[in-house]
Structure formats: C-alpha cells, structure tokens
Write a structure and sequence with these properties.
It is built from no helices and 8 strands. The chain is mainly beta and 124 residues long. The protein has one domain. A 4-stranded antiparallel β-sheet has the order 2-1-8-5, with no helix packed on it. It is elongated and about 45 Å long.
Length: 124
C-alpha cells in the first residue's frame, strides 16, 4: 500500500486515493506528462498503453480515461485490465470512434486525461 502523505478525501470507503493526470502523445510516443504525479506511462503500442502507479494499492474503485485536443480523428479509451496490488498497472486500449477499431496512433495536438480512485486500505 502507498505510504505517501496523501490529503484526506471524504468517501464512504476507507483510505481513498485519487490519482489523475494528463499525458501528451505524438505518433504513439509519450511526449510528456503535463499534470499529475504518482504514475508513469508507456508509449502506445498497437493501440495499447499502460499506466504504472508509483505505489501499490489494495483495490481499484473506479477508473476513466479520455482523449482531448484539437483536430484528428475522434478516439475513446477503455480500461482493459488492472493490477494495482502487485504489478501497479492500469492497462488501456485506444479505439477509433468511427469504426471501433483499435488504433495505435495519436495526433500531435491530442492528449489523454485519466483519473483513478484507489483504495489504500484492506479494512472495510
């Protein structure tokens, strides 16, 4: 479990941690993380990218990601797998909205924004 100095969150679950950020991609390569802390991100390979959390957590409560930016084809993101307790990963696939096909590219002026609500306690 994470051992950082997190600020309190009002939630019905114990020890909720919110991690989010903005990740810029150009031609499927990560060009920067403009917002957020506590994670790194892989390049997009065949439409798939992985966010690796700095710390382990007991469970993933919720996760969402989407593509924003000017120009280019419209995309949507799906979280396909997660292992926050040992591998510390959130796996995503980037789809083209026109035909639902998995796509491996991202235009220069687009970025991916994500948020994850994580449980940092095994207590209920």
């Amino acid at each position: 479990m994470a051992n950082r100095d997190f600020k309190p969150v009002k939630a019905l679950e114990r020890e909720v941690v919110i991690i989010g950020g903005r990740i810029a991609f150009t031609d499927a390569a990560v060009t920067g993380i403009s917002e957020g802390a506590g994670f790194t991100c892989s390049d997009i390979s065949s439409g798939v990218f992985t966010i690796t959390l700095t710390d382990k957590y007991s469970d993933l409560l919720y996760c969402d990601a989407h593509v924003v930016g000017a120009g280019g084809p419209e995309r949507y993101i799906e979280c396909t797998a997660h292992d926050v307790s040992s591998a510390k990963t959130l796996s995503f696939v980037c789809n083209d909205q026109t035909d639902d096909a998995v796509t491996g590219d991202s235009d220069q002026d687009q970025e991916i924004q994500f948020v994850a609500f994580l449980k940092n306690s095994s207590l209920t």
